[in-house]
Write a structure and sequence with these properties.
Residues 6-91 form the Core-binding (CB) domain. With 336 residues, the chain is mainly α. The protein folds into two domains: 8-114, Tyrosine recombinase, N-terminal domain (DNA polymerase, domain 1), CATH 1.10.150.130; 122-281, hpI Integrase, Chain A (Orthogonal Bundle), CATH 1.10.443.10. The chain has 14 helices and five strands. The radius of gyration is 22 Å and the shape is globular.
């Protein structure tokens, strides 16, 4: 097979364009984020032609990425599985040697290795929300992060909300599955629900809608709750808000990773996920669920509010320690 030279950036652009019609925008964003690290590694290694890639170099990348990202086995597997798909695409355009993808290794997960532990802890969530309350009150990021933490909803559900889905009198949000007008939600019709919100959240939503929300409609004539000047905020934009405002330097002014805050690449909005401490919307959801459980919410109530089964909560979301769970069970001893 005769290889045709291609640089990493061009190859990634071609790959993303090719997948654009095959996968959801959320998947495309995830692949772009993961593969940006591979492009970064190529640049550091001076690899400007992917024809140079070999099985040994792919193993070197795996080890570098594990250390660079401080990855758990589950996260490492996710990263390397995406790289394998990318390399298989590169084979199809004569950019790398045939069957190189089979040499891209990733961990074999067993038991709890398959559980992702990243979540936003209560103290950090309160620190971030206090900062937003004080310095960026009723901004889109303030509304988004508040909703994700307090309602435990997925970013897709937040993205799907319209202004009319908010009822200030009954203090609730209606989550709807509307695939025909661009906002499907996970679990489809089974994911539709009413979500009660507190006085404080209602006040924030009222102020956002009245004073700061852009007066726009989306391409279907709907009034998105989380809006930009162009219309409904893309889910990628909402994820960017989470990565941006969960960087510790935003709320505290300090970097726990001893990075130079004048040159840190994570200062750029588009690369905020490069901060080791920034987290995705899912980490806010997981943190909110764990916080509710620690506040002794019944598992059934959390399940219905977050639209996730109790068994999935127990396996993937509940991050209480064994001692915390034991102490909460202690209250039932008097009834035995």
């Amino acid at each position: 097979m005769s290889l045709e030279p291609i640089d990493p950036e061009t190859a990634l652009d071609l790959y993303l364009t090719d997948r654009d019609t095959e996968v959801t925008q959320a998947t495309l964003y995830s692949h772009s984020s993961r593969l940006s690290h591979f492009v970064r590694w190529c640049n550091q290694q001076g690899i400007d032609n992917l024809n140079e890639l070999t099985g040994r170099k792919m193993q070197e990348y795996r080890l570098w990425r594990r250390e660079d990202g401080d990855l758990s086995p589950a996260s490492e597997k996710t990263q390397m599985d995406t790289v394998r798909v990318f390399v298989k695409y590169l084979e199809s355009i004569d950019a790398v040697e045939e069957d190189l993808h089979v040499k891209v290794r990733s961990p074999q997960l067993t038991g709890k290795d398959n559980v992702r532990d990243v979540m936003l802890e209560q103290d950090r969530a309160e620190e971030i929300l206090d900062y937003l309350e004080k310095y960026e009150y009723a901004s889109r990021p303030h509304v988004l992060l508040t909703l994700l933490w307090h309602t435990m909803m997925r970013v897709g559900a937040a993205h799907a909300l319209d202004v009319d889905d908010y009822d200030p009198d009954d203090q609730l949000l209606e989550v709807h599955h509307r695939p025909d007008t661009g906002t499907p939600i996970k679990n489809q019709a089974k994911g539709e629900r009413l979500v009660a919100v507190s006085d404080d959240v209602c006040s924030l939503l009222d102020d956002w809608i009245a004073t700061r929300r852009p007066e726009v409609t989306d391409e279907y004539g709907r009034k998105p709750l989380l809006a930009t000047r162009e219309g409904r905020a893309h889910k990628g934009t909402l994820r960017g808000d989470c990565y941006q405002y969960t960087r510790p330097c935003i709320a505290t002014g300090n970097c726990p990773h001893d990075r130079d805050q004048d040159t840190c690449t994570a200062l750029d909005y588009e690369h905020a996920y490069d901060c080791p401490s920034s987290v995705s919307p899912h980490a806010l959801r997981r943190g909110g669920i764990t916080y509710a459980l620690n506040q002794e919410w019944p598992a059934k109530a959390v399940s219905n509010r977050a639209n996730v089964s109790e068994s999935v909560i127990d396996e993937h979301y509940d991050r209480r320690t064994k001692r915390e769970k034991m102490e909460q069970r202690r209250q039932y001893l008097e009834n035995i």
